[in-house]
């Protein structure tokens, strides 16, 4: 009998490209604080929680502010970000993902979401994928951020699967590290050098072909 397996997906950068919206919102915040925030800076925020992202951004601008002001800025940033998210549609699902989910469904392989984003359910709803996932673990459910394995371990538990039988799809280094720490197979999406710790690396989601899928599950 074939071994039972499950998939756990990161959201941002794997299912949809929301990094561009995070970037717009963080850049506007930096501008209002009087410093420049570039796309290179934005790379540092991938896979990182909202609170930690603000800390990194303030460090870049060498800005020190009160705890109260930080809370205010977090709300401001998220409000702008939600403005972009609310306009999202199924068109924004990254190439190869619909095909992959269809392949999983037709092979009766369960899949969960394991995301650092507190906005994950809303984003999935906007792109019409909310009801496809057997379980959703998001930024509201975890106390420890990636590279801690918590998010994926909770995902495995919700799917009733052993960690070693789970396959994680991730674009962030911290996410690949989290999958490895959870003793799961990892598929990195992005630069092979950056994601060298992943079990497999694909340049982008369009490389997630049915052929590759069959190789992975067999
Ligand atoms: C991660 C993104 O998925 O979610 C990060 O890669 C983001 O860039 C984090 O900061 C938290 O997202 P949110 O939606 O809760 O602000
Ligand atoms: Mg990601």
Give a structural overview.
It contains 9 helices and 6 strands. With 218 residues, the chain is of the alpha/beta class. 34% of the residues are buried. The chain has 2 domains: 6-17 and 91-217, 3-Layer(aba) Sandwich (Rossmann fold), CATH 3.40.50.1000; 19-85, DNA polymerase, domain 1 (Orthogonal Bundle), CATH 1.10.150.240. The structure holds 6-O-phosphono-beta-D-glucopyranose and magnesium ion. Residues 10, 12-14, 46-47, 171-172, 175 line the site of magnesium ion.
Strand content: 5-15%
Q: Which ligands, by name, code or SMILES, are bound?
A: 6-O-phosphono-beta-D-glucopyranose, magnesium ion
CATH class of the largest domain: Alpha Beta
Side-by-side strand order of the widest sheet: 3-2-1-4-5-6
Derived from helix and strand composition plus strand pairing, the structural class reads alpha/beta
CATH architecture of the largest domain: 3-Layer(aba) Sandwich
What percent of the residues sit in helical stretches (DSSP H or I)?
A: 40-55%
User: Helix count?
Assistant: 9
Please count the beta strands (DSSP E, at least 2 residues each).
6
CATH topology of the largest domain: Rossmann fold
Total discrete domains: 2
**Distance between the amino and carboxyl termini:** 11 Å
Name the helix and strand elements from N-terminus to C-terminus, one letter apiece.
EHHHHHEHEHEHEEH
Radius of gyration: 17 Å
Uncertain runs with pLDDT below 50, 5 residues or more? none
3D shape: globular
Strand count, sense and barrel status of the largest sheet are:
6 strands, parallel
Mean pLDDT: 96
CATH H-level name of the largest domain... which superfamily? HAD superfamily/HAD-like
